[in-house]
Amino acid sequence: MNNLFYIILATLIVSLISFIGILSLAIRERLLEKILLSLVALSAGALIGGAFLHLIPEAVEKTKSVFVLVLIGFVIFFLIEKVLHWQHCHEGKCEIHTFAYMNLVGDFFHNFLDGLIIAASFILDFKLGIITTFAIAIHEIPQEIGDFGVLVYGGFSRKRAVFMNFISALAAVLGGIFGYFLSSYSNIPMSFIPPIAAGGFIYIAASDLIPELRKENTRMSIVHFFVFILGIAIMYGLKFLGVD
Asked: What gap in Å lies between CA 52 and CA 59, rounded to an integer?
């Protein structure tokens, strides 16, 4: 039952990050954009570092066909994005093509999958669960600010946007509980989820986050590059400290 407690706690913490979106209302748009892009760079580095330094090495020890599963994860995330129009909007200005309700539907499945990934990680190894939760939490910060902007821009009041975003974020808790009981009362192995998650992390970083950073001028691009490296370094540092 300890695993279930840690899974619920981790997914609840990730869900609470949804409230950070409202803080964007108190920050100037230009400053917010700079902060967001720095967070995007940090998020990209953390996701890449989490995939290559933690999830994939752990998966090599647990299951065969690791790189096939990583590729499957990459393809699955690409498919989800195309089918559900799942776009992580990282700026306050978002196109309406991912309109408010579709954004909520996409985020619900996204958050549920995050919970499932966190559950699988804790079940395989407690330290891996911490690493995975950290990587997901770092990624959630710029995404949740963007999601809040999408909902407000799509016609929701600020209070309703915060509430609906939080309800969607709670899907992570459902995913975590589902993953725990799936592993406890079925013969389905959970060891296949981390490499699939690694493929998803790589897809999100390479396809969604890094392209946003390429839009900046040369000076800011250099800054964001080093912030990206910092994200990888944090993951390496956690590995070096034995959190693996």
From this structure: 10
